[in-house]
């Protein structure tokens, strides 16, 4: 029986939807949702897809995530001319509903109540690659920021506590233009870098060095 292209595409789509995310892929999704990733509801309104979008400058991060999730993606990243970014989406998947319930319980993204149970070095490294930066002062590396300004003070406290309990790394809540973000200072700077250094992709290693 000859399969026409449209039918072949439909079969591929159904196969991808029937697979389960691996533990590594689940961790990548968690780290991405702590960072810049978003979940979007399908037109049918039953399931969700994961949208990943970064600036062109972070193209290697986009393609790295694409390779990690490729068995759940139908098309490679595409450039968005309007804002000079690269974007791709996963297929809609029933397992993403679980993440929606944790990260979007009332529609707005939050830091989940059970984030401590989910946070491991790989999750932290993905989160840092998305939303982290280094702080240089007087030509010397002072520490690292996790730009958590979209989360509430209570959620930042939750993240701070989870990082300390899981890794012994001390963070501080730091004001930033009327918002709050996390700061890893000199006391835990080296431990933080050692924890995630080997997990950060080569093109983003600059975020960790002086």
Main sheet characteristics:
4 strands, antiparallel
CATH class of the largest domain: Alpha Beta
Number of helices: 8
Strand order of the largest sheet: 1-2-4-3
Strand-residue proportion = 15-25%
Indicate the low-confidence ranges by residue numbers: 1-8
Rounded mean pLDDT is 92
**Which word captures the global form?**
globular
CA radius of gyration is 18 Å
Could you please say which CATH topology of the largest domain applies here?
Endonuclease I-creI
Structure characteristics:
210 residues; alpha+beta; 8 helices; single chain; 40% helix; endonuclease activity; four-stranded antiparallel sheet; Endonuclease I-creI; Homing endonuclease LAGLIDADG domain-containing protein
Could you explain how this protein is built, in words?
The chain has 210 residues and is an alpha+beta fold. It folds into two domains: 1-105, Homing endonucleases (Endonuclease I-creI, Roll), CATH 3.10.28; 110-210, Homing endonucleases (Endonuclease I-creI, Roll). Helices cover 40% and strands 21% of the residues. It contains eight helices and eight strands; from the N terminus they run ααββαββαααββαββα. It has helices at 5-18, 23-34, 59-68, 96-103, 115-118, 121-131, 153-167, 186-196, and strands spanning 38-41, 48-55, 78-80, 85-89, 132-137, 140-146, 172-176, 179-184. The chain has a four-stranded antiparallel beta sheet, with helices on one face. The chain has a four-stranded antiparallel beta sheet with strand order 5-6-8-7. A hairpin with a 4-residue loop joins β3 (78-80) and β4. α2 (23-34) runs parallel beside α6. The radius of gyration is 18 Å and the shape is globular. Mean pLDDT is 92; it is low at 1-8.
């Amino acid at each position: 029986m000859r399969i026409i292209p449209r039918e072949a595409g439909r079969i591929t789509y159904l196969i991808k939807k029937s697979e389960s995310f691996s533990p590594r892929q689940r961790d990548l999704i968690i780290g991405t949702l702590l960072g810049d990733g978003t979940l979007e509801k399908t037109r049918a309104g039953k399931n969700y897809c994961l949208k990943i979008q970064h600036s062109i400058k972070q193209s290697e991060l986009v393609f790295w995530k694409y390779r990690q999730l490729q068995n759940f993606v139908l098309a490679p990243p595409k450039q968005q001319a309007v804002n000079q970014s690269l974007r791709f989406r996963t297929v809609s998947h029933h397992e993403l509903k679980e993440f929606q319930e944790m990260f979007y319980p009332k529609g707005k993204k939050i830091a989940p109540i059970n984030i401590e149970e989910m946070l491991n070095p790989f999750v932290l490294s993905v989160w840092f690659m998305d939303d982290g930066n280094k702080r240089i002062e007087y030509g010397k590396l002072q520490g690292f920021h996790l730009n958590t300004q979209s989360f509430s003070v209570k959620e930042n406290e939750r993240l701070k506590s989870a990082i300390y309990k899981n890794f012994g790394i001390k963070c501080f809540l730091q004001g930033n233009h009327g918002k709050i973000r996390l700061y890893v200072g000199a006391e835990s700077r080296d431990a933080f870098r050692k924890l995630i250094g080997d997990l950060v992709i080569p093109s983003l290693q600059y975020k960790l060095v002086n």
